[in-house]
Predict the 3D structure of the following.
Amino acid sequence: MDARDAARLLKGVRAAALAGRRPPAAPRPEIAESWRRMLAGGVHPDRDARSRVLSAAETQERRQVSPLRELLPVLREGLLPALDEALHIMVVADADGRLLWREGHASILRKADRLGFAVGADWAEAVVGTNGVGTALVVRRPVQVFSAEHFVSSHHDWTCAGAPVRDPRDGQLLGVVDVSGPLATMHPATLAWVSSVARLAERELRVRHLESLERLRAVAAPLLARLPGRALAVDPHGWTAAVAGLAPSDRIPLPKTLGPGRLWLPQLGDCVAEPLPGGWLLRIAEPRAAAAPVSRVVLDLSRPRSWSATVYGAAGSWSQELSPRHAELLFLLAESPRGRSAAELAAELFGDPTRTVTVRAELSRVRRHLAGVLTHRPYRFAQDVEVELVRPRDPAELLPHSTAPAVVRARQSGTAGTGGRGTPEGPVGDVVP
Protein backbone atom coordinates (compact mmCIF):
# COMPACT_ATOMS: atom_id res chain seq x y z
CA MET A 1 0.00 0.00 0.00
CA ASP A 2 0.93 3.64 -0.37
CA ALA A 3 2.39 4.83 2.94
CA ARG A 4 -0.29 7.49 3.41
CA ASP A 5 -3.12 5.05 2.63
CA ALA A 6 -1.63 2.53 5.04
CA ALA A 7 -1.37 5.21 7.75
CA ARG A 8 -5.04 6.16 7.29
CA LEU A 9 -6.11 2.52 7.51
CA LEU A 10 -4.06 1.94 10.67
CA LYS A 11 -5.48 5.03 12.33
CA GLY A 12 -8.93 3.55 11.77
CA VAL A 13 -7.78 0.21 13.17
CA ARG A 14 -6.34 1.88 16.27
CA ALA A 15 -9.42 4.08 16.81
CA ALA A 16 -11.69 1.04 16.62
CA ALA A 17 -9.48 -0.93 19.00
CA LEU A 18 -9.50 1.90 21.55
CA ALA A 19 -13.28 2.27 21.27
CA GLY A 20 -13.93 -1.46 21.51
CA ARG A 21 -15.42 -1.61 18.01
CA ARG A 22 -14.70 -4.08 15.26
CA PRO A 23 -11.70 -2.70 13.31
CA PRO A 24 -11.68 -2.36 9.50
CA ALA A 25 -8.68 -4.73 9.50
CA ALA A 26 -7.06 -6.84 12.18
CA PRO A 27 -3.87 -5.39 13.68
CA ARG A 28 -0.81 -7.58 13.43
CA PRO A 29 -0.65 -10.00 16.39
CA GLU A 30 2.46 -8.46 17.98
CA ILE A 31 0.88 -4.99 17.70
CA ALA A 32 -2.45 -6.17 19.14
CA GLU A 33 -0.66 -7.78 22.09
CA SER A 34 1.32 -4.60 22.71
CA TRP A 35 -1.84 -2.47 22.63
CA ARG A 36 -3.44 -4.77 25.20
CA ARG A 37 -0.40 -4.32 27.44
CA MET A 38 -0.65 -0.56 27.04
CA LEU A 39 -4.34 -0.49 27.92
CA ALA A 40 -3.76 -2.73 30.93
CA GLY A 41 -0.79 -0.60 32.04
CA GLY A 42 -2.64 2.70 31.80
CA VAL A 43 -0.54 4.28 29.03
CA HIS A 44 -2.52 7.22 27.63
CA PRO A 45 -3.04 6.88 23.85
CA ASP A 46 -3.00 10.64 23.22
CA ARG A 47 -0.60 11.93 25.85
CA ASP A 48 3.12 12.05 25.17
CA ALA A 49 4.55 10.77 28.47
CA ARG A 50 8.31 10.78 29.02
CA SER A 51 10.68 9.73 31.78
CA ARG A 52 13.61 11.77 33.02
CA VAL A 53 16.43 11.88 30.50
CA LEU A 54 19.73 10.60 31.85
CA SER A 55 22.41 13.20 32.48
CA ALA A 56 25.53 13.18 30.33
CA ALA A 57 27.47 11.54 33.19
CA GLU A 58 24.82 8.84 33.69
CA THR A 59 24.70 8.14 29.97
CA GLN A 60 28.46 7.87 29.75
CA GLU A 61 28.52 5.48 32.71
CA ARG A 62 25.99 3.22 31.00
CA ARG A 63 27.96 3.37 27.76
CA GLN A 64 31.12 2.26 29.52
CA VAL A 65 29.55 -0.85 31.04
CA SER A 66 27.43 -1.80 28.02
CA PRO A 67 28.75 -4.72 25.91
CA LEU A 68 27.12 -2.97 22.94
CA ARG A 69 29.90 -0.37 23.01
CA GLU A 70 32.31 -2.86 21.42
CA LEU A 71 29.76 -3.63 18.70
CA LEU A 72 29.28 -0.06 17.47
CA PRO A 73 31.74 -0.49 14.56
CA VAL A 74 29.78 -3.53 13.33
CA LEU A 75 26.44 -1.75 13.65
CA ARG A 76 27.72 1.38 11.95
CA GLU A 77 29.31 -0.57 9.12
CA GLY A 78 26.17 -2.60 8.57
CA LEU A 79 23.66 0.27 8.70
CA LEU A 80 25.15 3.69 8.02
CA PRO A 81 26.46 3.19 4.44
CA ALA A 82 22.96 2.27 3.22
CA LEU A 83 21.19 4.74 5.51
CA ASP A 84 19.84 7.98 4.12
CA GLU A 85 21.12 10.13 6.96
CA ALA A 86 18.73 12.92 6.04
CA LEU A 87 15.72 10.63 6.50
CA HIS A 88 16.74 7.94 8.99
CA ILE A 89 18.21 7.78 12.45
CA MET A 90 20.14 4.80 13.84
CA VAL A 91 19.66 4.22 17.55
CA VAL A 92 21.26 1.76 19.98
CA ALA A 93 19.49 1.21 23.30
CA ASP A 94 20.41 -0.89 26.33
CA ALA A 95 18.30 -3.65 27.86
CA ASP A 96 16.36 -1.08 29.93
CA GLY A 97 15.29 0.82 26.83
CA ARG A 98 17.63 3.77 27.45
CA LEU A 99 18.96 5.31 24.24
CA LEU A 100 22.76 5.32 24.48
CA TRP A 101 23.85 6.12 20.93
CA ARG A 102 22.19 7.61 17.86
CA GLU A 103 23.42 8.79 14.48
CA GLY A 104 21.84 10.69 11.61
CA HIS A 105 21.72 14.03 9.87
CA ALA A 106 21.28 17.12 12.06
CA SER A 107 17.85 17.84 10.56
CA ILE A 108 16.43 14.41 11.38
CA LEU A 109 18.05 14.50 14.84
CA ARG A 110 16.21 17.76 15.57
CA LYS A 111 12.92 16.11 14.61
CA ALA A 112 13.77 13.18 16.88
CA ASP A 113 14.53 15.58 19.73
CA ARG A 114 11.03 17.05 19.47
CA LEU A 115 9.67 13.51 19.82
CA GLY A 116 11.85 12.82 22.86
CA PHE A 117 13.90 10.33 20.84
CA ALA A 118 17.16 11.61 22.32
CA VAL A 119 20.26 10.10 23.90
CA GLY A 120 19.51 9.23 27.53
CA ALA A 121 15.75 8.98 26.98
CA ASP A 122 13.74 6.00 28.23
CA TRP A 123 11.90 4.27 25.38
CA ALA A 124 10.65 1.29 27.33
CA GLU A 125 7.24 0.20 26.09
CA ALA A 126 5.59 0.83 29.46
CA VAL A 127 6.75 4.48 29.31
CA VAL A 128 6.18 5.63 25.71
CA GLY A 129 3.89 2.91 24.35
CA THR A 130 4.34 0.57 21.39
CA ASN A 131 7.60 1.32 19.58
CA GLY A 132 10.50 -0.39 17.83
CA VAL A 133 12.81 -0.20 20.83
CA GLY A 134 10.60 -0.95 23.83
CA THR A 135 8.34 -3.51 22.16
CA ALA A 136 11.34 -5.43 20.76
CA LEU A 137 12.70 -5.61 24.32
CA VAL A 138 9.41 -7.02 25.63
CA VAL A 139 8.83 -9.66 22.93
CA ARG A 140 12.58 -10.28 22.46
CA ARG A 141 12.36 -10.49 18.69
CA PRO A 142 12.57 -8.02 15.78
CA VAL A 143 9.60 -5.64 15.52
CA GLN A 144 8.57 -3.04 12.94
CA VAL A 145 6.08 -0.38 14.04
CA PHE A 146 4.48 1.76 11.35
CA SER A 147 2.58 5.01 11.89
CA ALA A 148 -0.59 4.43 13.94
CA GLU A 149 0.69 1.05 15.12
CA HIS A 150 2.44 3.26 17.69
CA PHE A 151 0.05 3.33 20.63
CA VAL A 152 0.69 7.01 21.42
CA SER A 153 -0.68 9.33 18.74
CA SER A 154 2.25 11.77 18.78
CA HIS A 155 4.43 9.02 17.24
CA HIS A 156 2.16 8.40 14.24
CA ASP A 157 4.31 10.39 11.82
CA TRP A 158 7.19 7.95 12.34
CA THR A 159 8.05 4.39 11.44
CA CYS A 160 10.69 2.27 13.18
CA ALA A 161 12.27 -1.17 13.01
CA GLY A 162 14.13 -2.61 16.00
CA ALA A 163 15.96 -5.90 16.56
CA PRO A 164 17.26 -7.21 19.91
CA VAL A 165 20.92 -8.10 20.37
CA ARG A 166 21.75 -11.02 22.69
CA ASP A 167 24.96 -12.21 24.25
CA PRO A 168 25.64 -15.60 22.58
CA ARG A 169 27.47 -16.79 25.70
CA ASP A 170 24.40 -16.85 27.93
CA GLY A 171 21.47 -15.55 25.86
CA GLN A 172 21.25 -12.38 27.95
CA LEU A 173 19.45 -9.51 26.25
CA LEU A 174 21.97 -6.71 25.74
CA GLY A 175 19.76 -4.15 24.02
CA VAL A 176 18.21 -3.15 20.70
CA VAL A 177 19.43 -1.61 17.46
CA ASP A 178 16.75 0.47 15.74
CA VAL A 179 16.33 2.41 12.51
CA SER A 180 13.60 5.06 12.58
CA GLY A 181 12.41 7.83 10.33
CA PRO A 182 9.41 9.84 9.15
CA LEU A 183 6.39 8.08 7.71
CA ALA A 184 7.52 8.28 4.07
CA THR A 185 10.69 6.26 4.83
CA MET A 186 8.75 3.05 5.50
CA HIS A 187 9.99 0.04 3.53
CA PRO A 188 9.06 -3.62 4.11
CA ALA A 189 12.70 -4.73 3.84
CA THR A 190 13.89 -2.46 6.66
CA LEU A 191 13.14 -4.96 9.41
CA ALA A 192 15.02 -7.78 7.66
CA TRP A 193 17.95 -5.44 7.12
CA VAL A 194 18.13 -4.31 10.75
CA SER A 195 17.68 -7.91 11.97
CA SER A 196 20.56 -9.08 9.79
CA VAL A 197 22.86 -6.41 11.20
CA ALA A 198 21.87 -7.41 14.75
CA ARG A 199 22.79 -11.01 13.93
CA LEU A 200 26.14 -9.81 12.56
CA ALA A 201 26.78 -8.07 15.87
CA GLU A 202 25.98 -11.28 17.76
CA ARG A 203 28.32 -13.17 15.44
CA GLU A 204 31.09 -10.72 16.32
CA LEU A 205 30.50 -11.45 20.01
CA ARG A 206 30.61 -15.18 19.29
CA VAL A 207 33.93 -14.87 17.43
CA ARG A 208 35.44 -12.87 20.30
CA HIS A 209 34.19 -15.48 22.75
CA LEU A 210 35.82 -18.33 20.81
CA GLU A 211 39.07 -16.38 20.71
CA SER A 212 38.97 -15.92 24.50
CA LEU A 213 38.36 -19.66 24.97
CA GLU A 214 41.40 -20.40 22.80
CA ARG A 215 43.54 -18.15 24.98
CA LEU A 216 42.24 -19.87 28.12
CA ARG A 217 42.83 -23.30 26.59
CA ALA A 218 46.46 -22.42 25.86
CA VAL A 219 46.99 -21.63 29.54
CA ALA A 220 44.94 -24.50 30.98
CA ALA A 221 46.02 -27.45 28.82
CA PRO A 222 49.54 -27.77 30.31
CA LEU A 223 48.11 -27.49 33.84
CA LEU A 224 45.50 -30.18 33.23
CA ALA A 225 48.11 -32.51 31.76
CA ARG A 226 50.03 -32.46 35.06
CA LEU A 227 47.08 -32.70 37.44
CA PRO A 228 45.91 -36.05 38.87
CA GLY A 229 42.20 -36.75 38.86
CA ARG A 230 39.43 -34.99 37.03
CA ALA A 231 39.42 -31.28 36.24
CA LEU A 232 38.32 -28.73 33.68
CA ALA A 233 38.93 -25.11 32.75
CA VAL A 234 35.97 -22.81 32.15
CA ASP A 235 35.57 -19.14 31.34
CA PRO A 236 33.64 -16.77 33.68
CA HIS A 237 30.39 -17.76 31.95
CA GLY A 238 31.02 -21.48 32.46
CA TRP A 239 31.97 -22.33 28.86
CA THR A 240 34.47 -25.17 28.78
CA ALA A 241 37.93 -24.54 27.36
CA ALA A 242 39.64 -27.84 28.29
CA VAL A 243 38.92 -31.02 30.27
CA ALA A 244 40.88 -33.89 31.81
CA GLY A 245 39.30 -37.16 32.90
CA LEU A 246 35.75 -35.98 32.11
CA ALA A 247 33.34 -36.25 29.23
CA PRO A 248 33.37 -32.94 27.34
CA SER A 249 30.56 -30.55 28.22
CA ASP A 250 29.90 -27.29 26.40
CA ARG A 251 29.01 -25.33 29.49
CA ILE A 252 28.85 -25.65 33.28
CA PRO A 253 26.36 -23.36 35.11
CA LEU A 254 28.34 -21.30 37.61
CA PRO A 255 27.17 -19.28 40.63
CA LYS A 256 27.02 -15.54 40.10
CA THR A 257 29.62 -14.91 42.77
CA LEU A 258 32.36 -17.48 42.23
CA GLY A 259 35.53 -17.31 44.31
CA PRO A 260 38.46 -19.57 45.08
CA GLY A 261 37.71 -22.55 47.27
CA ARG A 262 35.30 -25.41 47.58
CA LEU A 263 31.83 -25.27 46.02
CA TRP A 264 29.08 -27.53 44.80
CA LEU A 265 27.95 -27.53 41.16
CA PRO A 266 24.89 -29.46 39.99
CA GLN A 267 26.68 -31.10 37.03
CA LEU A 268 29.94 -31.89 38.81
CA GLY A 269 29.24 -32.20 42.52
CA ASP A 270 31.91 -30.99 44.98
CA CYS A 271 34.69 -29.02 43.31
CA VAL A 272 37.62 -26.82 44.19
CA ALA A 273 37.82 -23.60 42.17
CA GLU A 274 41.13 -21.91 41.39
CA PRO A 275 41.49 -18.74 39.30
CA LEU A 276 43.09 -18.81 35.86
CA PRO A 277 43.77 -15.95 33.47
CA GLY A 278 40.41 -15.47 31.81
CA GLY A 279 38.56 -18.15 33.75
CA TRP A 280 38.61 -20.86 36.42
CA LEU A 281 40.16 -24.25 37.04
CA LEU A 282 37.59 -26.62 38.56
CA ARG A 283 39.02 -29.73 40.19
CA ILE A 284 36.54 -32.46 41.15
CA ALA A 285 36.78 -33.13 44.89
CA GLU A 286 35.80 -36.21 46.86
CA PRO A 287 32.06 -36.09 47.62
CA ARG A 288 31.15 -35.06 51.13
CA ALA A 289 29.42 -37.65 53.24
CA ALA A 290 25.68 -37.23 53.69
CA ALA A 291 25.65 -33.93 51.78
CA ALA A 292 22.22 -33.28 50.31
CA PRO A 293 22.72 -32.06 46.72
CA VAL A 294 19.82 -29.60 46.81
CA SER A 295 17.66 -28.57 49.75
CA ARG A 296 15.82 -25.46 48.59
CA VAL A 297 14.96 -23.49 45.45
CA VAL A 298 13.86 -19.85 45.49
CA LEU A 299 11.99 -18.83 42.35
CA ASP A 300 12.14 -15.03 42.30
CA LEU A 301 9.55 -13.42 40.00
CA SER A 302 9.30 -10.17 41.94
CA ARG A 303 11.29 -7.96 39.56
CA PRO A 304 10.13 -6.95 36.08
CA ARG A 305 12.12 -8.55 33.24
CA SER A 306 14.58 -10.06 35.74
CA TRP A 307 13.62 -13.52 36.98
CA SER A 308 15.88 -16.09 38.62
CA ALA A 309 16.03 -19.48 40.29
CA THR A 310 18.43 -19.74 43.24
CA VAL A 311 19.42 -23.26 44.29
CA TYR A 312 20.65 -23.94 47.84
CA GLY A 313 22.63 -27.03 48.77
CA ALA A 314 24.94 -28.25 51.52
CA ALA A 315 27.97 -26.65 49.84
CA GLY A 316 26.41 -23.29 48.99
CA SER A 317 24.06 -21.72 46.50
CA TRP A 318 23.96 -20.59 42.88
CA SER A 319 21.50 -18.67 40.73
CA GLN A 320 20.27 -19.05 37.19
CA GLU A 321 18.65 -16.19 35.27
CA LEU A 322 15.45 -17.25 33.55
CA SER A 323 14.11 -16.46 30.12
CA PRO A 324 10.45 -15.35 29.93
CA ARG A 325 9.34 -18.84 28.82
CA HIS A 326 11.35 -20.65 31.49
CA ALA A 327 10.01 -18.29 34.16
CA GLU A 328 6.47 -19.20 33.06
CA LEU A 329 7.16 -22.93 33.19
CA LEU A 330 8.80 -22.86 36.61
CA PHE A 331 5.95 -20.72 37.95
CA LEU A 332 3.44 -23.33 36.78
CA LEU A 333 5.45 -26.14 38.38
CA ALA A 334 5.85 -24.20 41.63
CA GLU A 335 2.07 -23.79 41.74
CA SER A 336 1.55 -27.53 41.37
CA PRO A 337 3.68 -29.59 43.81
CA ARG A 338 2.21 -32.87 42.52
CA GLY A 339 3.43 -32.10 39.01
CA ARG A 340 1.87 -31.71 35.59
CA SER A 341 2.04 -33.61 32.34
CA ALA A 342 3.32 -32.06 29.13
CA ALA A 343 -0.27 -31.78 27.85
CA GLU A 344 -1.42 -30.02 31.02
CA LEU A 345 1.47 -27.58 30.82
CA ALA A 346 0.76 -26.94 27.14
CA ALA A 347 -2.88 -26.13 27.94
CA GLU A 348 -1.90 -23.74 30.72
CA LEU A 349 0.90 -22.14 28.73
CA PHE A 350 -0.62 -21.88 25.25
CA GLY A 351 -4.28 -22.76 25.73
CA ASP A 352 -3.58 -25.77 23.48
CA PRO A 353 -2.87 -29.20 25.05
CA THR A 354 -1.46 -30.53 21.76
CA ARG A 355 1.67 -28.34 21.89
CA THR A 356 3.57 -30.88 23.97
CA VAL A 357 6.65 -30.91 21.73
CA THR A 358 7.35 -27.25 22.53
CA VAL A 359 6.84 -27.84 26.26
CA ARG A 360 9.17 -30.85 26.33
CA ALA A 361 11.86 -29.00 24.40
CA GLU A 362 11.75 -25.99 26.72
CA LEU A 363 11.79 -28.15 29.86
CA SER A 364 14.74 -30.07 28.47
CA ARG A 365 16.61 -26.76 28.24
CA VAL A 366 15.61 -25.83 31.79
CA ARG A 367 16.79 -29.16 33.17
CA ARG A 368 20.26 -28.65 31.68
CA HIS A 369 20.75 -25.89 34.23
CA LEU A 370 18.62 -27.31 37.04
CA ALA A 371 19.69 -30.93 37.06
CA GLY A 372 18.66 -32.59 40.30
CA VAL A 373 15.99 -29.96 40.91
CA LEU A 374 13.37 -30.98 38.33
CA THR A 375 12.02 -34.42 37.59
CA HIS A 376 9.67 -35.68 34.89
CA ARG A 377 6.76 -38.11 34.49
CA PRO A 378 5.13 -35.89 35.60
CA TYR A 379 7.14 -32.69 35.40
CA ARG A 380 7.64 -31.26 38.90
CA PHE A 381 10.20 -30.08 41.42
CA ALA A 382 12.00 -32.96 43.12
CA GLN A 383 10.15 -34.27 46.15
CA ASP A 384 12.90 -33.47 48.67
CA VAL A 385 13.35 -29.89 47.43
CA GLU A 386 11.68 -27.05 49.32
CA VAL A 387 10.36 -24.49 46.83
CA GLU A 388 9.79 -20.83 47.63
CA LEU A 389 7.97 -18.61 45.13
CA VAL A 390 8.66 -14.87 45.44
CA ARG A 391 5.84 -12.92 43.80
CA PRO A 392 5.73 -9.18 43.03
CA ARG A 393 3.79 -7.11 45.53
CA ASP A 394 1.45 -5.93 42.77
CA PRO A 395 -0.31 -8.98 41.26
CA ALA A 396 -0.51 -7.21 37.89
CA GLU A 397 3.31 -7.30 37.69
CA LEU A 398 3.48 -11.11 37.81
CA LEU A 399 5.24 -12.04 34.54
CA PRO A 400 3.62 -9.05 32.79
CA HIS A 401 4.81 -10.23 29.35
CA SER A 402 2.92 -13.51 29.66
CA THR A 403 -0.33 -14.32 27.88
CA ALA A 404 -0.40 -17.88 29.27
CA PRO A 405 -3.95 -18.62 30.51
CA ALA A 406 -2.72 -19.88 33.89
CA VAL A 407 -0.55 -16.80 34.47
CA VAL A 408 -3.36 -14.45 33.42
CA ARG A 409 -5.67 -16.15 35.93
CA ALA A 410 -3.03 -15.83 38.64
CA ARG A 411 -2.67 -12.10 37.95
CA GLN A 412 -6.42 -11.59 38.07
CA SER A 413 -6.94 -13.54 41.28
CA GLY A 414 -3.74 -12.55 43.09
CA THR A 415 -3.39 -10.24 46.08
CA ALA A 416 -0.65 -7.77 46.88
CA GLY A 417 2.03 -8.99 49.24
CA THR A 418 2.46 -7.70 52.76
CA GLY A 419 5.63 -9.53 53.67
CA GLY A 420 8.43 -11.70 52.49
CA ARG A 421 12.00 -11.42 51.30
CA GLY A 422 13.06 -7.83 50.90
CA THR A 423 15.55 -5.07 51.39
CA PRO A 424 16.13 -3.23 54.70
CA GLU A 425 13.61 -0.65 53.46
CA GLY A 426 10.86 -3.24 53.34
CA PRO A 427 9.59 -6.33 51.57
CA VAL A 428 9.76 -6.57 47.81
CA GLY A 429 7.35 -9.41 47.24
CA ASP A 430 5.32 -12.27 48.52
CA VAL A 431 7.15 -15.43 49.50
CA VAL A 432 4.91 -18.44 48.99
CA PRO A 433 6.39 -21.72 50.28
